[in-house]
């Protein structure tokens, strides 16, 4: 059984027009839109679906956060599975203690142990292989007589949805255990309030992070992978130019190594643009990151630390 990553994301949204504009600006291809909402497709064929928050066909919202941040949120995350045998094995495993429904497209729908709605589908995603960005450094000049790829401003698009983050108010280990013990996710790093893990069919440092935060429950962010540092900067700069608010970034994380830029998304929570994540396998040594220790979880640099960014209370989605 191999889970590969994120296949589909379904949001229930209060202001569809605004949320559609955000995904357009983010560089997603709009495959379809109308009164019902809109469907977007990433370059690897992951799909993102926006629906009216009142749409009765959606799973209920599962979120407790600042009130103005609860009106729009992710309603369901569908994980990519490598083949039908894996899908059947997941269905059989989870059916032991919860209801698992199969829809007409063959997608399984259920809930995790924290109450979040999840699904599983045989993947339709494409594998993307990019050529590395060529950088010069002192004494080493692989890019000769040629300018850097990043010198010309351009619109960029996310290649894939790499990971999800959920908040839980308590029972952090129980929340993570569901994914590790029932779905074979592999722990990759821990801190007192964070459990990072990767799906067994992915070498990304994390495809899922569960984070404990008092009085908070629900979807926090989805991270979209871009080619390289310049593309993350192009994406973030473009979003700010279009009026969207930065939550955090640009930064370099010291868990998973990503260069990241997080923006508040009117569809719900935050969208992260990232590149250069650690590629790990079963030889990876699971780390423990104490926030009080030097070099622990956090960032190695941040362009806008502290208050020079929009915190949840400051991001008013209206
Ligand atoms: Fe992230």
Structure, explained:
The model has no long low-confidence stretch (mean pLDDT 94). The protein has a single domain, classed as 2,3-Dihydroxybiphenyl 1,2-Dioxygenase, domain 1 (Roll). It has four helices and 18 strands. Helix content is 15%, strand content 34%. Strand 6 and strand 7 form a beta hairpin. It has 318 residues and is an alpha+beta fold. The strands form two sheets. Strands 17-10-11-12-9-13-16-15-14-18 form a ten-stranded mixed sheet, with helices on one face. Strands 2-3-4-1-5-8-7-6 form an eight-stranded mixed sheet. The protein is globular and about 60 Å long. It binds fe (ii) ion (FE2).
What features would you highlight for this structure?
2,3-Dihydroxybiphenyl 1,2-Dioxygenase, domain 1, binds fe (ii) ion, single chain, eight-stranded mixed sheet, globular, 18 strands, alpha+beta, ten-stranded mixed sheet, 318 residues
């Amino acid at each position: 059984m191999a889970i590969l990553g994120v296949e589909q994301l379904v949001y229930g949204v209060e202001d569809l027009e605004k949320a559609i504009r955000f995904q357009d600006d983010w560089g997603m291809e709009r495959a379809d839109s109308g009164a019902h909402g809109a469907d977007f497709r990433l370059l690897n064929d992951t799909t993102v679906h926006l629906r009216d928050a009142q749409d009765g066909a959606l799973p209920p919202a599962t979120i407790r956060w600042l009130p103005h941040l609860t009106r729009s949120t992710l309603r369901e995350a569908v994980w990519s599975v490598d083949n039908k045998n894996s899908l059947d094995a997941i269905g059989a495993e989870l059916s032991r203690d919860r209801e698992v429904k199969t829809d007409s497209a063959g997608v399984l729908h259920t809930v995790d142990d924290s109450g979040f709605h999840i699904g599983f589908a045989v993947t339709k995603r494409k594998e993307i292989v990019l050529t590395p960005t060529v950088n010069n450094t002192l004494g080493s000049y692989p890019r000769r007589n040629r300018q850097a790829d990043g010198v010309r401003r351009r619109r960029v698009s996310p290649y894939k949805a790499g990971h999800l983050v959920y908040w839980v108010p308590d029972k952090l280990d129980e929340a993570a255990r569901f994914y590790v013990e029932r779905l074979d996710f592999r722990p990759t790093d821990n801190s007192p309030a964070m459990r990072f893990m990767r799906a067994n069919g992915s070498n990304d440092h994390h495809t899922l992070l569960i984070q404990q935060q008092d009085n908070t429950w629900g979807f926090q962010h989805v991270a979209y992978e871009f080619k390289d540092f310049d593309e993350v900067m192009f994406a973030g700069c473009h979003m700010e130019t279009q009026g969207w608010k930065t939550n955090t970034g640009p930064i370099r994380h010291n868990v998973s190594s990503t260069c990241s830029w997080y923006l508040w998304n009117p569809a719900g929570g935050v969208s992260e643009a990232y590149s250069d994540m650690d590629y790990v396998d079963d030889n990876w040594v699971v780390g423990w990151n104490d926030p009080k220790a030097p070099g622990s979880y956090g960032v190695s640099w941040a362009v806008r630390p502290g208050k020079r960014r929009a915190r949840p209370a400051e991001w008013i989605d209206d």
